[in-house]
Write a structure and sequence with these properties.
This is CPBP family intramembrane glutamic endopeptidase. With about 230 residues, the chain is mainly α. It has eight helices and no strands. Helix 5 runs antiparallel to helix 6 (about 165-180) and helix 5 (about 130-160) packs antiparallel against helix 8.
């Protein structure tokens, strides 16, 4: 492939990836809008209905695109892998390490060494307005969206060669980008979010099955809410 063709392809992939991210943010934004009108139950119900339809369509589109990517090029052989005792044990170890990391972060915030991230404040505010729907979105839907976008589609677009260096760069880049999506300032909280992203990226790369990183993301968000 000629240099100009390569650059053109990457530019197009970047544009499409950003487009998928915008679709996700738009779907989640509709739920936030519905929460702004809790004083009007009639309007809230209609906005929630629209938000659910848009969310279902957005998730279907992104999942479809991820599947098409794997059909077109899948050198790492990502897919559905069988469940074994070894895989369960490895998953538990990764989960416990991630939990310890999350607990350290919470401790630093509780001791006022770190400030509560703006993203966390926004999530907590949304929970007060529409607790059930926001809990479902945060715990169930957001992990699926974010793993498909930040792990599946991102790695397939930009880190599609199966070698040690490329896999390591994929884990780091995906983690850092995940951190930036949750904390727009380059500070310690951004590093902490990036650390969580690297746990998720490692899980996806290690197990070669996006269901594992989705499951880990689900557990992390669930524990964060209780």
């Amino acid at each position: 492939m000629q240099p100009h063709q390569y650059l053109g392809t990457k530019a197009w992939q970047i544009g499409k990836w950003i487009g998928f991210l915008i679709v996700y943010l738009f779907a989640s934004g509709l739920l936030e809008v519905a929460g702004e009108y809790t004083h009007n139950p009639f309007l809230t119900r209609h906005l929630l209905g629209i938000a659910l339809v848009v969310t279902a369509a957005a998730l279907s589109l992104i999942a479809w695109r991820y599947g098409k990517q794997l059909q077109a090029s899948n050198p790492r052989r990502f897919g559905k892998t069988g469940l074994t005792r070894k895989r369960v044990a490895e998953f538990i170890v990764v989960f416990l390490l991630m939990l310890a990391f999350q607990m350290l972060w919470s401790y630093l915030i509780a001791k006022h060494i770190l400030m509560t991230p703006d993203n966390q404040k926004a999530v907590e505010a949304d929970q007060l307005r529409l607790p059930v729907w926001n809990a479902i979105f945060s715990v169930v839907l957001a992990p699926i969206f974010e793993e498909l976008i930040f792990r599946g589609i991102f790695m397939n677009y930009f880190f599609n060669k199966d070698n040690r260096l490329n896999n390591l760069l994929a884990i780091i880049a995906s983690g850092l980008l995940f951190g930036f999506a949750h904390e727009l300032q380059f500070n310690v909280n951004w590093l902490m979010y990036s650390g969580l992203g690297c746990f998720l990226s490692f899980t996806y790369m290690h197990f070669r099955d996006i269901r594992y990183s989705i499951g880990l993301h689900f557990l992390n968000n669930f524990i964060s809410m209780i």
